[in-house]
Each structure stands twice: as C-alpha cells, then as structure tokens.
Amino acid sequence: MAGTLPRTATVVLAAVLIASSGCGRRSDIDLTFDHGLRSSPTPPTSLVPLTLSFDIINDSLDDVDNVEWVINRDGVAFKSGIIGHIDDGDFDFGTVSFTETAGSHIYEFVIDPANRIRERSEDNNVSVITVVVPPGGTG
Question: Per-residue DSSP letters for 62-86?
C-alpha cells in the first residue's frame, strides 16, 4: 500500500499531534494571591478613605493577559478591573480607595470571576477580609 504509514507510525504521529495541541493537558497557569486582600488605615475611619490592596501572582511558566478581577462588598459587586498582562512567575500589585460608612463590611476579592482563564487550580482565586469601621468617624 503505497502512500500509507504503518500502523505503529500512525499511532505515534496521532499521539504527537494530540500532545502538541494541548488536548488532555491541564493548563500550567495558576493565578493566586501573595498576601491576600489587605486594608488600611488600621483601624479604619469613616473620615479617611479606606484602601484595599492586593497582589495577584502568576505562578506559572506562561504569561497571562487580560486578568479580570472583582471586589464584592457585602455580597454585591463593588469594584472591578482588568490587569492587562502579568509575566510568567511575576505579580501585579493594585489598590482601590473609597470612603466607607460605619459598620462591618465583608470584602471578597475574586480573580478571573468568569473563569475565562484555564488554571491548574480555581480554588485559590478568592480572598476575603472583614473591615469594621466604628461609628462617629474615628478608629
């Protein structure tokens, strides 16, 4: 049979094509936090803007583009953004500042909330912090 590969060669070629296309492989990308969500000043006040800080780490050998994030305040989307690019093995530091009302507030920071980036682990994409702002504007 001229023009056909032996069965062994066909199987090897198919395995090479599948491996190079990424089928069946788990992504190497893993986005996570360095220190989790942090707040300042400590203690907070209702007179000075509250700042939430975060470090998103790209713990992989691949660069990542367009990393979406959202901060939920007391269960409702509050702030969001996109980090344009994070190099492999690098991180991006960010902050958001705003004036907060007195009371206890739960902030949940979520990396890639729509799960658009295929990662090794989706279980490390959330950091939660509770911030209590005393009444009367003082900490």
Answer: S-EEEEEEEEEETTEEEEEEEEEEE
